[in-house]
Write a structure and sequence with these properties.
Radius of gyration: 36 Å
Number of helices: 22
Distance between the termini: 75 Å
CATH architecture of the largest domain: 2-Layer Sandwich
Structural class: alpha+beta
Strand order of the largest sheet: 1-11-3-2-6-5-4
CATH topology of the largest domain: Beta-Lactamase
CATH superfamily of the largest domain: GAF domain
Strand content: 15-25%
Length: 860
């Protein structure tokens, strides 16, 4: 079978005439594999040209007979067929195809296979499969993803991720390790056995993971070490290939370099697995797993962890993007308000300092320098005027038109040493080229203490031959270093905000200086462009406002009434506009519209209006129309109806009709007697006519002596249904939890995902630590070691039940409750009938309620 033409063959350098120790270490790494499986290298016509030295142990045939043989003569035809099918999917270099539980020889065990291209060869790796039924990979990945996808902050996301990966793999320690811009890394989340020293918060220097290793982690995102003391199996070649090394970059079994093994031994680690977390094709961090003894993780389980790592990386990217969007949205609002205030009141040159203060809220800093038209205004912690002039000359050479930042000014401008105690970092925004004007943000020195995992400096070792060799660190005890002369790093979000601010400030500056005719023309062109873009929407708004003015004037008794009523109506439109523009001119919540109008008119605490109905969104056109209708209803109720006396209230309910339209009922109750008006004002016209006229719906108002009733409907094309139900706004406080926990708690549950959820609930109820067991043997072993304060027992544990555990708990006087998915239909032993139980699925409230029902413990 010919290899795909798109697979390029990397050129491997020939062996050097003589090998140094470092060369030998590299050959050890790239030309041998771990002993936990075997490797064979095939030519496109399926001839075995290379194989690992332990290949014969797995295929029951001498290695010399394997080399040079055709693969089809060694393994079953079904296995060959499956491998051929996978080879057809190798569409590019660095792609690995996987097969699980493939039987290679008649009556033999199942193997997990990895197939990929290495130059002109096909590499086939095989590892013994896990026992059948021990892992449902698809279900496991789906459950793990479900547990993390609702987290919206990276710390919460990574904390949950290490819990899940440890539960999946069983490693003693699982960490999420994030890389910093300087190449160093930090443990930001950790899950380890209680007896182990925590690494959370420790930093590791960039040299711990060399650049070539990082490049390989991007290409091959999962790497494992089964046993640090297991001797590697060399790759043996036929005479044809004897002089060339095998490129094992994508191998899952590739051996580790002796320096890395020494590094792990210094940490006391015997087995590892790392999963790369990639963001935009770059290495964001790692999931690092450590075990203190040898540990074999099946290929299918590792693949499950790898898929989870890919999803986790996407979720981390999503969290960071959401935080960036939130920051940028806030920044845009501030710059918009800034422009609006300048446009409204104008800013003179003497007000530059005040303007600088407004800009500080966009980019957090300790001081600002506003240099414009030869005048420099300093505010806060900054260099002196003389020192700033030197810095300004430096900026002229590096920041002619683009934003420039540094968190260590002294490193780029040595003269900054004189003011580093006042300004260690800067963010410079050029706002003109002739003359060179700048807005500069300064940050003070942040003397930070970094906790390194040992002294970050690498030691070197001189060998007997005089050769110098890098020696891995031997101590990982926390080592503190205090950094001086640097400020807090400028984030990507802040730099992007600065770039956006540059445009805004340019517009503001046009109002601060006496511009030339050319500058005024340029500003006019910019203004014309903005006006043209917004012209259509502005015309509609102006037309609406003009209509409001005209109709309000007709019914106004005096100028004060006219101003008040018109102002209220315009504000109602503005509030509606704010709500739909906050969603990028998308649908707005009908309930939020009502709540906003009520709070605006009656205050934030109002118990006189009761709402109920399904969750409904209105598209912008309908939202604005109903905003005026609701405003007029609330205004009339406050002036003449249910809100104007004590004891009155309004019930407003809505539902979705048979045709999908929104049907709303407004009823005023308990107000003063009502009589129909002798003539209809503009407010009544809005209530009765605006929905039929603008939306094609229906509206009717009825004046009853007991109160006004209004019924209206909005056609279905203006309605969007939400997912979560909306209950009445008249609510009572949540029922308090009944019971709580303390100390260590035993949880017996045979389902991993359910156990993780129950563990979190028990911890939230006050448990200091949760001891988890999935079977009777493990639970009894825990009870032999320590006495918990409480236990939660799943009755059914596969082919066992938890009654022996309950007996043991009774003996040592530990209170417990049962849990079951079968409700009350369990035949409990007679001496356990009185124990409380809860029905699955677990909830925090059901556990707390059961805790409250436990009576003081008495032996039978």
């Amino acid at each position: 079978m010919a290899m795909p033409q798109t697979l390029a063959s990397p050129t491997l350098p020939p062996d050097p005439p003589t090998l140094t120790n470092c060369d030998k270490e590299r050959i050890h790494e790239i030309n041998s594999i771990q002993s936990g499986g075997f490797l064979i290298a095939l030519t496109p016509d399926w001839i075995i040209e290379r194989a690992s030295a332990n290949c014969g142990e797995f295929l029951n045939q001498p290695l010399e007979e394997i080399l040079g043989a055709n693969l089809t003569a060694l393994i079953m035809s079904e296995a060959v067929h499956a491998i051929r099918n996978r080879l057809s999917s190798l569409y590019r270099q660095d792609v690995i195809e996987r097969l699980f539980a493939i039987v290679l020889q008649e009556g033999g065990p199942g193997f997990d296979l990895a197939v990929h291209a290495s130059g002109d060869l096909i590499l086939l790796e095989a590892e013994l499969s896990e026992k059948s039924g021990e892992l449902n990979a698809g279900s496991m990945v789906r459950s793990m993803i479900d547990h993390v996808q609702h987290q919206h902050h990276v710390p919460d996301l990574t904390h949950e991720a290490v819990r899940l990966v440890q539960a999946l793999t069983g490693y003693d320690r699982v960490m999420v390790y994030q890389f910093h811009p300087d190449g160093s890394g930090e443990v930001i989340a950790e899950r380890c056995r209680p007896s182990m020293e925590p690494y959370l918060g420790l930093r590791y220097p960039a040299t711990d993971i060399p650049k070539q290793a990082r490049a390989l982690l991007i290409r091959n995102p999962i790497r494992n070490l089964l046993d640090i003391d297991s001797p590697p199996s060399l790759i043996v070649s036929t005479k044809t290939f004897a002089d060339a090394l095998t490129d094992l970059s994508m191998s899952s079994l590739r051996s580790h370099s002796p320096i890395h093994l020494e590094y792990l031994r210094n940490m006391g680690v015997a087995a590892t697995m790392t999963i790369s977390l990639l963001k935009n094709g770059a290495l964001w961090g790692l999931i690092a797993c450590h075990h203190m003894t040898a540990r074999t993780i099946g290929y299918e389980r590792r693949t499950t962890a790898e898929v989870f790592g890919q999803i986790l990386a996407l979720l981390i990217d999503q969290c960071e993007r959401e935080e960036l969007i939130t920051f940028e949205t806030s920044t845009r609002q501030i710059t918009t308000d800034l422009l609006a205030s300048v446009a409204l009141a104008g800013v003179a040159t003497k007000d530059v300092a005040q303007l600088a203060n407004q800009l500080v809220s966009i980019v957090p800093c300790d001081g600002t320098a506003f240099c414009i038209d030869g005048s420099v205004t300093l505010k806060g912690s900054t260099p002196s005027l003389e020192e700033f002039e030197v810095l300004r000359s430096f900026l002229d050479g590096v920041s002619a038109s683009r934003v420039y930042s540094s968190n260590e000014i002294e490193s780029v401008c040595p003269s900054a040493n004189s003011f580093k105690d006042r300004a260690a970092g800067m963010l410079a925004i050029p706002i003109s080229t002739i003359p060179r004007d700048y807005l500069v943000f300064f940050r003070k020195e942040t003397a930070s203490t970094v906790k390194w995992a040992g002294d970050p400096t690498k030691s070197v070792e001189v060998l007997g031959s005089g050769e110098v060799r890098i020696s891995p660190r031997k101590s990982f005890k926390a080592w503190q270093e205090t950094l001086h002369g640097k400020s807090t790093q400028w984030t990507d979000a802040e730099l992007r905000a600065a770039e956006a601010l540059q445009i805004t400030v340019l517009e503001v500056v046009l109002r601060l200086i006496s511009a030339t005719e050319a500058e005024r023309n340029a500003a006019s062109q910019t203004q014309d462009l903005l006006i043209a873009e917004l012209n259509h929407r502005v015309r509609n708004i102006l037309g609406l406002i003009r209509g409001l003015i005209s109709q309000t004037r007709i019914n106004a008794k005096d100028m004060d009434t006219f101003a008040s009523v018109l102002g209220d109506r315009v504000h109602a439109l503005a509030r509606a506009h704010d709500q739909i523009t906050a969603k990028n001119w998308g649908p707005g919540s009908f309930q939020s519209l009502i709540t906003t109008e009520v709070e605006a008119y009656l205050g934030p605490v109002c118990n006189t209006i009761h709402m109920s109905g399904p969750p409904v969104l209105l598209i912008p056109k309908a939202f604005s129309t109903l905003a005026l209708v609701i405003h007029e209803l609330i205004t009339n109720a406050a002036k003449y109806g249910a809100f104007c006396g004590e004891g009155g209230h309004v019930d407003i309910s809505w539902r979705i009709g048979p045709q999908g339209d929104l049907i709303v009922n407004w009823a005023e109750i308990g107000g003063p007697p009502v009589t129909a008006p002798s003539h209809r004002g503009f407010g009544s016209t809005i209530i009765e006519a605006s929905i039929p006229h603008e939306l094609g719906g229906e509206s009717a108002i009825t004046f009853l002596a007991t109160g006004v009733k209004v019924n209206f409907s909005v056609p279905a094309q203006f309605i969007v249904l939400e997912e979560q139900p909306i209950t009445s706004t008249t609510t009572t406080a949540d029922t308090p939890l009944v019971g709580s926990l303390q100390g260590h708690v035993l949880l017996v549950e045979d389902n991993l995902i359910i156990a993780l959820d129950a563990e979190a609930m028990l911890l939230s109820l006050g448990a200091e630590r949760v001891l988890v067991a999935s079977n009777v043997k493990d639970a009894l072993a825990i009870l032999d070691r320590e006495k918990p304060s409480f236990a939660l027992l799943d009755v059914n544990l596969g082919n066992q039940n938890s009654f022996p555990i309950a007996d043991r708990l009774f003996e040592i006087e530990v209170p417990f409750i049962f849990a079951t998915g079968y409700g009350s239909g369990i035949n409990y032993p007679s001496d356990q009938n009185a124990r409380p139980f809860i029905t699955k699925p677990y909830t925090k409230d059901s556990i707390a309620k059961a805790l409250g029902g436990i009576e003081p413990f008495t032996k039978r």
